[in-house]
């Protein structure tokens, strides 16, 4: 494998001999330098391992890919994986086994577990309460966060009722939380909380400290700005065990505050490490894009365009729109001027629905509870090359859930995740997963009526032999797989033929890069419930908020061409902002 070129700054990160924090601008080659360090250190240590942890599966895959033919570094004693996987494997599982005498089952999110949607007695005509609306503390106590209760929970009286019965709701959530923990079902959130809880107790510390010290010499943390309270607790513990901590990140790319990642706490931890480095060369983007990044940064780094794109003179393009379907044609016209093709472009938005509308599709979530619709929609998504990995996952999940509902009619599934339910009914999770993909991809809803497609789904399911699991009879299939309502059917089948530019949420493309980015700012901008400010207020006022950092992450994915598609209502403001911050731009 060719060793990639490194700058002096990158080389300093590779060769450092003490715990450190490296602050880097976008495109600084953090991944390149971190992987070089990981390979070097794994080669040096012959007894203890080196761990490289990141926050998303995509980032982890990228690191694995860059390790090339050095496959030995991906095996014990070394570790390359998500921070959650590290916490599961090396902290929570050993302590859980000690406490409960069995291994826990990890599920990705509480949403995968039915009992995390619950009702209080006599709630009337409201939606069920959801775990996602609560913050849990390390002892499982629940705190209802009213900002997360959606408006469509119920009418004004229902919202008042919830306010009055807050304690009752919190107690119910607390009880369900512990029931799930005892049943061995842990979401990533629960596992993080348990890690924090246990790491604060001397008895558990004494069990883990010698194990971890014997296993790891160093832990390298990618995207360190995304560390939340629990991850920082883990890092503090590792450091106290004598393990070297190398953190690499960009504070301005911290966009996970909803799960308590706090840039200030990360800064505080980082300032306690003996070493500090800064990487300010952007190898990814043109000077105009670097200027856009600078206009959104909180001021700690001074970024400079380097490498091949430092001579690209293309300004940032501002595209005004009043209807979302005007965005794609305008963006394609601009891209054409710079010889960029459709596949070079990526539409990015804060909310999935905004980007999806701009690209001309229907959000996966719009399938609602109709299983036939979910299968049709998933088929369009999986067949399309434009669908990003996160949306694919969601689509397959919906189909998997639909199929599972037909196989678990007489079984209590409320407190268990997908893998545990599969185990109970005796179906291999992988078999169900590939069946879900086959079902969605194999049946094409294009040009079919909703009734005809629903009948096809039922026939497909009726023909499967699930071995020991009783196959659902035709009346059950008829009840579970009804034809969806006409209006939604029309919009989903239409979407199958539309999207021409890929789209994703900003959170879905962290760490990635694209020749051209279309950043969409819709008519309705979310106002922060505490400050009342929108992202444009934050940008103008220089407020370092997560909303502003989301814009920064989005813009900084672009290599050559950044297009801001802004609703007409806000376009003058954005143009004035770019002007006042010295960002070369052109209004189209
Ligand atoms: N020393 C170098 N010489 C030439 N190109 C480089 C160098 N270092 C990095 N690059 C290139 O710059 C781009 C950005 O690198 P990389 O993705 O590693 O940055 P990053 O710091 O992880 O970015 P971000 O945090 O914004 O996702 C990549 O295309 C990479 O190949």
From TrEMBL:
Domain annotation UvrD-like helicase ATP-binding: ranges: 3-286
Entry's Gene Ontology BP terms: recombinational repair
Keywords of this entry: ATP-binding, Helicase, Hydrolase, Isomerase, Nucleotide-binding
Taxonomic superkingdom: Bacteria
UniProt-listed InterPro entries: DNA_helicase_UvrD-like_C, DNA_helicase_UvrD/REP, P-loop_NTPase, UvrD-like_ATP-bd
MF terms in GO: 3'-5' DNA helicase activity; ATP binding; ATP hydrolysis activity; DNA binding
EC class of the enzyme, as a word: isomerase
Catalytic activity: Couples ATP hydrolysis with the unwinding of duplex DNA by translocating in the 3'-5' direction; ATP + H2O = ADP + phosphate + H(+)
Transmembrane feature ranges: none
Entry binding sites for ATP: 24-31
Database matches in SUPFAM superfamilies: P-loop containing nucleoside triphosphate hydrolases
Annotated protein name in UniProt: DNA 3'-5' helicase
Organism: Marinactinospora thermotolerans DSM 45154
Upper lineage: Bacteria, Bacillati, Actinomycetota, Actinomycetes, Streptosporangiales
